[in-house]
Amino acid sequence: MGVHRIWHHGLVPTEGKRPLDALRSRLISRQRQHDDYTVTDLGSSDDGGSRRCDLEFAYGDGEGRYSVQVFLSLCYHAGEDRVTWLLAAACTRPWRSCHPAPAHRIGLEELGASGHDEIPIETPVLAMRGWSREECDHLADLLGEALVAPWRTSAVLVLAEPPTVPVSGWPGLVNVFDVDDRFRRTLNRNLPLGCAVPAGARLYAPPCDQLPDFVETASPVSGEALEGAITQLIQARGRTPLPDEWAEVASVRAWYAADPFVSPARPDAGLTEKLGHAARELAEARRVITILRKKAKAHAEERDRHACEVKALRGRLEDVSATDVVCLRKQLAQLQEEVDDYARAFEETEAERDELRRVNGLLAGRLARHHDADDEVAAAGRPPEEFPSFAELIAAATASLKHLALTADPAPAAILDHHPKAAAWRRKAWDALRTLDAYASARTSLLHAGQDPGPGLSDVLAFARTGQPGSLISANIIALAESDTVTTNERLRQARTFRVDPRTSPCGRDYFGAHIALERFKAPAPRLHFLDDTDRTGTVYVGYLGAHLPTSKTN
């Protein structure tokens, strides 16, 4: 049994982001719909910027007269819009034009494939009759260029007269053009002497097959003679070496050199597994190397960009003279003095505002009770109570403010006593505690009487914002909750968890997110953290008085 080979190659348009996988999937899916042949996936490989996959097909004539083995190799180079392919086929008897073309049997033409000359292989006969002069001139120029090109690897049959027997060519290897006399004359003007199309037909053989062209001038054109010429050309292809770009591919070279009809020796299972494992590791290593090369290139580009920026900055720095530096320092000192002046003015304004707020709250509380109005107004005019230390302030609050439960550790507050602004902070803390007590007293009185406290007593912030009797601080320094960053961070949340009565929380501790700012911006920015439990126990807890607790921006 002999082995008769052919080959041809061409191009396929890409599909999607993984063109090889898409083409392979379509070819395999087509086989499931046709039971007259088989397909085997031989795997794929990745070589730097290109990727290959191989498929093997097998079929016969159905009567056992001959068998065909087909090897299809697909290659995609990154960034290109087409996939290159090579089809190699072997038959147990000499090929003839009446045999179905392998490209047709396996469905390659259905993928929109074209030959190496970019002529689609899905159209067996391309009719060029009745075309306009412009169309004839354009296509004749393109076809004339392809016919004399030394790289052409497929045959072209030009019919100027219908043959006695229909001739459909051989998809992928022989393309047929049915032309009228006007197109024939236009085409001949684009061809050198000795290559013209006669009034009958001419089969232009590929230069690689080293066969003379077949010319038929008789009328009518003999279809049998044309079929014989096509058969001779197909059989000659088996003596033509593979194209250089495909002959270098190991899988193609090995398949074309071997006898595909001989059953291969059964490989050692252990060795096959080791080879497969090694091949997968090699492919993975190549993929990693490709990724590392891309990263190295990106890093090099970023390094060069940074170097250019550094060079530019150094140049700008050298342009700055010592005089400019001195001038900038003087301006900075002046600006710092202005900032200090504004800070002092701001503090004085805040102190005046707090004092006005305190007097307003005292007057509202006294006047609301409608007794001893003169004495109460006079008392409101007296300066606020002064405490020499935070410890005495906490003791006074514990003794006199009955609706507050001070569970705060005195140590953090005692540290504030050494600060220059400690006296101002103690006055503001005392007003804050009295405000909390007044709020708790007013809210619990209404709750115990079965009345709705209303929006003005919904919380401490509303109590201060609406200027209720007993409110001595600005609503601007009250916050009912911490930020989400603090609330969702377990470490920061624990720093704001303090002691409470078991009636409030069975575990004896609860989270104190609400707070009052005794100093809004400058460190140590003291805070008073409280927990409103007036709905259950009628109490407002004060769990912390001291420097600002840690946040995500502090250690």
Structural features, described:
A hairpin with a 2-residue loop joins strand 2 and strand 3 (about 50-60). The chain is α+β, with helices and mostly antiparallel strands and about 550 residues long. The two termini are about 85 Å apart. The model is unreliable at about 370-385 (pLDDT under 50). It contains 16 helices and 18 strands. A six-stranded antiparallel β-sheet has the order 2-3-4-5-1-6, sandwiched between helices. A five-stranded mixed β-sheet has the order 7-9-8-10-11. Strands 12-18-17-16-13 form a five-stranded mixed β-sheet. The radius of gyration is 47 Å and the shape is elongated. It has helices spanning about 20-35, 100-105, 135-145, 180-190, 225-235, 245, 250-255, 270-320, 320-370, 375-380, 390-400, 410-415, 420-450, 460-465, 485, 490-495, and strands at about 5-15, 40-45, 50-60, 65-75, 80-90, 115, 125-130, 155-160, 175-180, 200-205, 215, 405, 480, 495-500, 510, 515, 525-535, 540-545.
Q: Alpha-carbon distance between the termini? A: 86 Å
- Please state how the strands of the largest beta sheet are arranged side by side: 2-3-4-5-1-6
Total number of helical segments? 16
Helix-and-strand structural type? alpha+beta
Topology, number of strands? 18
Mean pLDDT value: 87
Give the biggest beta sheet.
6 strands, antiparallel
Q: Could you list the spans in which at least 5 consecutive residues all have pLDDT below 50?
A: 372-383
Q: What is the overall shape?
A: elongated
User: Strand fraction band?
Assistant: 15-25%
- Our Rg estimate from Cα atoms comes to 47 Å
* Residue share in helix: 40-55%
